[in-house]
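User: Before I run my own analysis I want an independent prediction to cross-check against. Here's the chain; please return only the structure tokens and, at the end, one sentence I can use as a sanity check.
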Amino acid sequence: MRALVKARVRLKDSEFSVNVHVSDRHLEMNGKNYELSQVSLDIPITGTVYGTLLNFQGSLEALKEQVHHPPYNQPPIGPVLYIKPRNTFSAFAKPIPLPAGVPELEIGASLGIVISKTATRVKKAQAMDYIEGFTIVNDISIPHESVYRPAVRFKARDGFCPIGPWVVTKDSILDPDCLGIRVYINGELRQENTTANLIRPISRLIEDVTDFMTLNAGDVLLVGVPENAPLAKANDHIRIEIDEIGYLENPIIPEEKLAMEGIS
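Assistant: Structure tokens:
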């Protein structure tokens, strides 16, 4: 992991280009060094977040013969997409609400591709020209069985999509198709994978998605969540690391407690 990369951060309604030390808790802004605890990071993206299902080899293999029976009948022949709506968006260090009566949440660590300009029917060879950079997304879900048709009530709750802490420019990343992804819960490593295991690598995913829909500047396309997503409960601390990008941290707090304290 390289120590210093170029990134874009948002602080409330202001944006800055910064130098980011991805391996620790510091960033350089306006010629000064800051610890992340000294700045209030906002959500660094402005568009729609599109999730991708079954794009890690292990996630499709985990279904085994299920994909050959109803309601699936065959493995997917194209990207399986869904939307994380704006109400789900949350920033670095903000609490993830745990709904009443739900014992655990599924932690969905994903690399987010941030689109730089209108992308329609983009070919693989030009796909990188449509990327501003990359960020980290925690695609939170209430555990559920549906795969091809993700239920909104399980994936689109308020605060179920922490994003950040920044957008690292594409030129700062050596190879986005070979980035390690790790999930820590309370400091314990609970999941490890790599974008080298994607069924559709980044350029192919952009080509396949933009063949039938337009992506706009500011939109985020998730590459997918690795198999065996870990579960976390109330008061757990989640840290997602992606090589060359940094880390995204958020606590899980019962929504009743957040309501009582007036925290959002």
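Sanity check: The chain has four helices and 18 strands.
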